[in-house]
TrEMBL record:
SUPFAM superfamilies: cAMP-binding domain-like. It comes from Rhodocytophaga rosea. Residues 9-52 form the Cyclic nucleotide-binding domain. This is Crp/Fnr family transcriptional regulator. The lineage of its organism: Bacteria, Pseudomonadati, Bacteroidota, Cytophagia, Cytophagales. InterPro entries: cNMP-bd_dom, cNMP-bd_dom_sf, RmlC-like_jellyroll.
Amino acid sequence: MDLYEFFNLFYPISQSEYDLFRNSLKVKTFKKGDLIIVPGQVQKELFFVRKGVQMSYVETVTRIHVVAFTYPPNPCAIPESFSFQKPSTYSLTCLSDSEMEYISFESLQQLFDKSQSIERLFRRMTEAILAGLINRHIELHALSMEERYRAFCQRSSHLLQLVPHKFIASYLNIDPTNFSKLFNTIRI
């Protein structure tokens, strides 16, 4: 799915409005293991994944707590850092070689001033991300370990082949040993 098709899942914009947006994009490549954002850094660019898988996480003394995975054609960001232009409290890294298109915060704000449809598109995408975060919060607190695993597999089963299982286990708040048992016994 290309970026135009992806955008139209949230709000239909014209080809000319998409072209206006597209003309503001630049491309950046990252290697596996590259840190995109670290705690204390302000995210000044919003990325759209063309290739690769990325992970946002909080690192404590005892472990890594995975917040999210991103992959094509999704946006890739520390949302509160980008949206409010404030320092991030967690990290964003590449789990594989990655290629992303990006737009600067300033350029995006200028596009919002030029196009109500682009602004509405981004509002709808933000609303969808918020709804997804609420659903994830409910899953983490109300579902059993097996139910969380099954829900993840319904949403993003392709990540089982692309992401180290210890990170998926962290994302699902499942002990790695229990995750391994689920992976080996439940067929999706």
